UniProtKB/TrEMBL annotation:
It holds the Pfam family G_glu_transpept. It comes from Halalkalicoccus paucihalophilus. InterPro entries: GGT-like_enzyme, GGT_lsub, GGT_ssub_C, Ntn_hydrolases_N. Residues 1-21, 297-319 are annotated as: Disordered. This is Gamma-glutamyltranspeptidase. PANTHER family: GAMMA-GLUTAMYLTRANSPEPTIDASE (AFU_ORTHOLOGUE AFUA_4G13580).
Length: 352
């Protein structure tokens, strides 16, 4: 790194300490949705869920009113996330406020029948790996992994690629996510879980940079509304980009719904243009455990690479995996202990 003008030193790596931390969560439709806390963007998904719940989300996944409310909730949550989320060891992140139902009510009151503009755009990055594993006893792992952007920093040392997560820092000296020594940047990778009545219900995630909280919002609302894991992933998806611009799976939606959103002021770019710009819908995996302990899997058809499910006769593990890359985050849930564990390795995250 230093040969290429970087400032990282061996002492930066030597002073690293891993930590265990509690996840953050909110209740939506009687189900607890769990995400990684800041410096990760999981709080954006949770705030958007709270706003959506306050607005009332009815109808099928492709219903125009439902889509409009989810899109507007997404914009507000990203505006707050990009303003406040950073390393809580360096700046004060208003986590309690952002997760507050009272605050969600205030934010929801800003949403009207027309498309609005709130803050900066959501950005565009991909190249992530996600897998979900659950064993017969209900022990579960929700794992996501990325070295950020096309091939991390593009540098290798000691036989491994060096990641590029520092790209997410802000160079504005007044911004909460400003670049500083020993600080972790705003982070995109966010594995998730669901619990119901204190019991594990699902290990899941959606890859794709800023698509992750947007995908979590859409997939979580689908699952809570009763769709099975595969149907929850298969449902038509939107991706907010910036301002009033958004991508929408128009080929999978009724013309009336698309027309209604355009009439409300949403600037829907064509799928061909979206893909030409490097856009994508993310890719999700779910392992769901029903009330009888039966494990049900779902694998996103959009990812463009084969997913894999495996029930080993030796271990009994059921796993769904998808993706391309390596920087990792992991939830591990041991049902007998009823607690979630999180470890962080610098800005990479793992269980040691």
């Amino acid at each position: 790194m230093q040969e290429h003008g970087g400032t990282l030193s061996l002492s930066d790596l030597e002073t690293h300490e891993s930590t265990w931390e509690e996840p953050i969560s909110t209740e939506f439709g009687g189900v607890e949705v769990l995400e990684h806390p800041p410096n990760g963007q999981g709080i954006i998904a949770l705030e958007a869920l709270n706003i959506a719940e306050e607005l009332g989300i009815e109808g099928e996944p492709g219903d125009e009113d439902r889509l409009h409310r989810l899109i507007e909730a997404t914009k507000l949550a990203f505006a707050d996330g990009y303003t406040h989320v950073s390393d809580p060891e360096h700046v004060e992140v208003p986590t309690k406020t952002m997760l507050s139902k009272v605050y969600a009510k205030e934010r929801a009151s800003e949403i009207g029948p027309e498309a609005a503009t709130h803050g900066a755009g959501a950005g565009e990055h991909a190249n992530t790996v996600y897998l979900s594993v659950v064993d017969p006893q209900g022990n579960a792992v929700s794992f996501i992994n990325s070295i950020y952007m096309s091939f991390g920093s593009g540098l290798t040392a000691g036989g491994f690629a060096l990641q590029n997560r520092g790209h997410s820092f802000s160079l504005d000296p007044e911004h909460a996510n400003r670049l500083a020594p020993g600080k972790r940047p705003f982070h995109t990778i966010i594995p998730a879980m669901l619990r119901e009545d204190g019991e594990f219900r699902a290990s899941w995630g959606v890859m794709g940079g800023s698509m992750q909280p947007q995908g979590h919002l859409q997939v979580a609302t689908n699952m809570v509304d009763g769709l099975n894991p595969q149907a929850a992933l298969d449902a038509p998806r939107f991706r907010w980009l910036d301002g009033k611009r958004m991508a929408l799976e128009t080929s999978r939606l009724p013309d009336e719904a698309v027309g209604s959103l355009r009439e409300r002021g949403h600037e829907i770019i064509e799928e061909s243009e979206f893909f030409a710009e490097g856009g994508h819908w993310g890719g999700g995996q779910i392992v769901y455990r029903d009330e009888d302990g039966v494990l049900i899997g779902g694998s996103d058809p959009r990812k463009g690479r084969p997913s894999a499910s495996n029930e080993s006769p030796h271990s009994g593990l059921t796993a769904f995996a998808h993706g391309t890359r390596s920087d990792l985050a992991l939830f591990a849930l041991h049902l007998s202990k009823k607690r979630l564990l999180r470890g962080r390795f610098g800005d990479r995250q793992t269980v040691l």
